[in-house]
Amino acid sequence: MTAEINLDQISKYQQNLNNRKDSKVIERAVTHQGILESSEDFIAEGKMNPVFSIDLSTGKVADQKQSGRCWMFAALNTMRIHLMNTYKVPDDFELSQNYTNFWDKFEKANYFLENVLKTADQPLDSRKVAWLMATPQQDGGQWDMLCALIEKYGIVPKSTMPETFNSSRSAQLNKFLNLKLRHDAVALRELVADKASEAKIAETKDNMMEEVYRMLTYALGEPATKFDFEYRDKDQNYHFDAGITPQEFFKKYVNLNLEDYVSLINSPTDDKPFNKTYTIEMLGNVVNGRPVKHLNLEMSELKKLAIKQLQNDESVWFGSDVGQSSNTKKGIMDTSLYAPDELFDSDLSMSKAERLDYGESLMTHAMVITGVDLVDGQPTKWKVENSWGEKVGTKGYFVMSDDWMNEFVYQFVINKKYLTEEQLDAQKQAPIVLKPWDPMGALA
Questions:
Q1: Rg value, the chain, Cα
Q2: Residue 67: left if φ>0, alpha if ψ -120 to 50, beta else—which one?
Q3: For residue 403, what pLDDT is reported?
Q4: What DSSP assignment string belongs to 135-165?
Q5: Distance (Å) of CA 398 to CA 74, 305, 334, 401
Q6: Average pLDDT of span 328-341
Q7: Which domain holds residue 275?
Q8: Which residue of 187, 252, 263, 425 is most buried, as measured by CB atoms within 10 A?
């Protein structure tokens, strides 16, 4: 049945609106102040006091600036805590986000071209090819992808490979790198269509990757292969380590067994039963590197594991939909912070599963949990280290309500030693492969 809107309906809608005594007051407030400002609950804001019963010392907040590298900043922020605790590096010490950014974009380019070859027999309008061409590479990523980079290339201090214009403002580099990769996709698909030899295709792709390397070096700088690590600790003692490689630096100074840390998700959708593992087709960066793998658990289990890790002085990398019910200036994430449903007198409720299934929510941002407030053993709010600099929140730190975590947090990274035997057994399962566009494949 087709039902178009007629003028009588519109007249009825307007008359019903005119009959509401509060309609003009609400209209004036919303048109002048906006939806969020008009529906903000200052009482809810007051409950998000940034005081926590467990509060880790994590140093100065970093700033990803105009780039989408939150997943990278969050992961490196968790790793620098070990250096702060063990080697007493200054609070403003950072690991180089530009170094891992360089190798991420280089490896993503190769990963893209390999997927172009794998799908070269499919028409351009197939969903997989269209999805692949929509974004050949981008700034975002997931925990396992950073582990794959570090396992291959190691890590360096920020002083060894500092930020550049293009790492801090990535739009131009992404634009032209994606242009180049789409251009290369045309050439590779034509070679496959013309039944070129494997040797010819490999040679062509190798030349393409050399050009990618040149572009990245011009934009981000040459990545170090050896460097000197020099610093004064918090006690003003001088330290100097000459001629160390990025791999040696990671092993000596960061000293984390990345295999110990696993990705746990909360996706309460019918297609993803709990206590099963999942991966996503065509999601990754390093070919033959560490694959993305998630174990799906109930949120109550995830929170217990996060608390255990915090109690052991370890922060928690997590992924969430940061734009939902969030005041980024004040640094508050709380489902009670805004009431747009009351403002519009309209039911805007959706379950977490419905938001995932119907495209209302997915993981958009990665941060670090550095504290929690426990009342009678139960969490009420969580302390979050963001990567947007010190001008937002409380010197860059946010407060997340426990209910906000329930609704909008999708991923945790937890050391396996905190998992139960049943969870460990479940994590060892071979993963179910999800479609490339599944929301659990979203890049933070």
A1: 24
A2: beta
A3: 98
A4: -S--S---HHHHHHHHHHH---BTTTS---H
A5: 14, 21, 11, 10
A6: 96
A7: 54-441
A8: 263
Catalytic residue among 19, 275, 386, 406: 386
Q: 306 vs 309, 317, 379, CA distance in Å? A: 5, 9, 11
Domain count, the chain: 1
Whether 186 maps to a domain, the answer reads: yes
> Is there a contact between 117 and 192 (Cβ–Cβ < 8 Å)?
yes
Measure the CA–CA gap between 148 and 167, rounded to whole angstroms. Answer: 20
The answer to whether 365 is a known catalytic residue is yes
Q: Which residues contact 318 (CB under 8 A, 6 or more apart)?
A: 74, 306, 366, 367, 368, 369, 409, 411, 412, 413
Residue pair 402/132 in contact (Cβ under 8 Å)? The answer is: no
Please give the pLDDT value at position 81.
87
Residue 57 pLDDT: 87
Q: Is residue 64 part of a domain?
A: yes
In a domain, 279, yes or no: yes
Determine how many CB atoms are found less than 10 A away from the CB of residue 234.
11
What's the one-letter identity of residue 133? M
Whether the model clears a pTM of 0.90, i.e. scores above it, the answer is yes
- d(CA 164, CA 176) in angstroms, rounded, equals 17
CATH code of residue 419: 3.90.70.10
CA distance 112 to 346: 44
User: For residue 263, with 0-12 CB atoms within 10 Å meaning exposed, 13-18 middle and 19 or more buried, which class applies?
Assistant: buried
* 239 is annotated as an active-site residue: no
Residue from 70, 147, 174, 178 carrying the catalytic annotation: 70
pLDDT at 46 over 90: no
Q: Tokens 């986000």 correspond to what residue? A: 97
**If you average pLDDT over every residue of the chain, what do you get?**
96
In tens, the pLDDT along 255-269 reads: 999 999 999 999 999
**371 falls within a domain:** yes
Cα distances from 215 to residues 60, 182, 222, 367, 428, in angstroms, run 32, 15, 11, 29, 40
Selecting among 147, 365, 406, 415, the annotated active-site residue is: 365
pLDDT at 17: 95
Interatomic CA distance for residues 382 and 401, integer angstroms? 6
pLDDT at residue 162 in the model: 97
2 confidence band (pLDDT: 50, 70, 90): confident
